[in-house]
Amino acid sequence: MQSTAAVSVSAPAIASGGGARSEAARRASGLRVCGLRGEALACPSLRISQAPARLAVARAAAAATNGAVAGSGGFDYDLVIIGAGVGGHGAALHAVEEGLKTAIIEGDVVGGTCVNRGCVPSKALLAVSGRMRELHDEHHMKSLGLQVSSTGYDRQAVADHANNLASKIRSNLTNSMKAMGVDILTGVGTIVGKQKVRYGKIGFPDKEITARNIIIATGSVPFVPKGIEIDGKTVFTSDHALKLESVPDWIAIVGSGYIGLEFSDVYTALGSEVTFVEALDQLMPGFDPEIAKLAQRVLINPRKIDYHTGVFASKITPAKDGKPVLIELIDAKTKEHKETLEINVVTQRGFVPVDERMRVMDADGNVPQAREKADKEGFEVDVVKTSFKANTKALAENEGDGIAKLIYRPDTGEILGVHILGLHAADLIHEASNAIALGTTVQEIKFAVHAHPTLSEVLDELFKAAKVNSGVSHSVNEPVAA
């Protein structure tokens, strides 16, 4: 059985403010249209080979018109980005495309959390666990007419697969920025004044630059609550877990969100037993309840996973002097002592606080519960669902366990949110994401072609199942027979 994913998207809240801004500031704030909406809004794509010439032309044109360009007004750069993760990298490339002289500051390695300690190596490990799980499923193999005599794995080779992928992506990001003329500055960046950044070694920043605009893209690190002692061997964070230095017989995972769920998939596929410790009253508390229920049935119940909900890990002590790891649990509501677990490995995840305009630090992937938000704001919503069991391609791969769920406004056809749990959900979700970003309604997307037999027909059936009030107009011309 291949790894099943659960993903969600919903319509974002958009806030804007007034006030005069410089041309460079307007360019910087407008860069977001060159990503998801680029093609629809006629934002031209930029090949790396075009970058230096385009940048030179933009600077020359701005200089000829006394525009805000690199170095004008005494600034060293039009834009300085603190943090060279995937977010900072994308911002840098878009800035150069708009003709801004750009520098990016990185205190560790290019790629940040995602490439080096997050989604890239984790997906490499999930690719392995998915194949291992499929090979171990004798019934699944026989139903496909395949016979597998034995399976096994090389732990170091699996770890190397993840590390090599991260290294390759890191190199690609670095080369793309260099090719487009982005200055990569090494050191820890600190904002020391208005439009002024100092960077260098930790505790000894010795270089200072000025910038018309500054983007903070410093990312995040695993959250470790008080009372939890990390030794990197028997008690460790997700950063350590991705190194796959060992595969213990038994692992406890503190937190059952998507990160904990991914590690449970990897470690159980490689032979470990897993115990979840979840402070809230249900597993996967951040998921849509219906999606979480199905995910528990498909991804947790059939596997060697048990769990404790409604309990908080108040203290974790690493293994030492022949004693195992100790986790002290207390009731999450009453704070009464529950019990002590003796286990081998712990992973932990945390959250990044942001305001409604994401002005503190953007937590990529945070998705509001669209239906609850709509109910709170007082407009009518409706929900429709489709199952992977009705999809020919999913059945051909014996992967019928899955669901797609649409939340929409029946009065306007506006798509508010989509949840998908099932085969290749991480790829399928982008049709819904693009529809929301472009303001495409249910009525309009019904006319999109979904080839048969493909998994995309799951969304085709989903959108066609939505009923919009009569009289609501749409801009798509209905097909007419020749």
What does this molecule look like?
The protein is of the alpha/beta class. It has three domains: 46-219, FAD/NAD(P)-binding domain (3-Layer(bba) Sandwich); 238-348, 3-Layer(bba) Sandwich (FAD/NAD(P)-binding domain); 370-465, 2-Layer Sandwich (Enolase-like, domain 1). The protein has 15 helices and 17 strands. It has helices spanning 23-29, 51-64, 86-97, 112-117, 119-136, 138-143, 155-179, 238-241, 258-269, 289-300, 370-377, 392-396, 425-438, 442-445, 457-465; strands at residues 4-10, 77-82, 102-106, 183-186, 188-193, 196-201, 204-216, 250-254, 273-278, 305-309, 311-317, 325-331, 337-343, 346-348, 382-387, 403-408, 415-423. It has a six-stranded mixed sheet with strand order 4-3-2-7-6-5. Strands 1-17-16-15 form a four-stranded antiparallel sheet, with helices on both faces. It has a four-stranded parallel sheet with strand order 10-9-8-14, covered by helices on one side. Helix 5 (119-136) runs antiparallel to helix 7 (155-179) and helix 5 packs across helix 9.
Question: Secondary-structure blueprint of this entry?
Answer:
Blueprint lengths: L3 E7 L12 H7 L21 H14 L12 E6 L3 H12 L4 E5 L5 H6 L1 H18 L1 H6 L11 H25 L3 E4 L1 E6 L2 E6 L2 E13 L21 H4 L8 E5 L3 H12 L3 E6 L10 H12 L4 E5 L1 E7 L7 E7 L5 E7 L2 E3 L21 H8 L4 E6 L4 H5 L6 E6 L6 E9 L1 H14 L3 H4 L11 H9 L17
Parallel strand pairs: 2-3, 2-7, 3-4, 8-9, 8-14, 9-10
Antiparallel strand pairs: 1-17, 5-6, 6-7, 11-12, 12-13, 15-16, 16-17
Helix pairs in contact: 5-7, 5-9
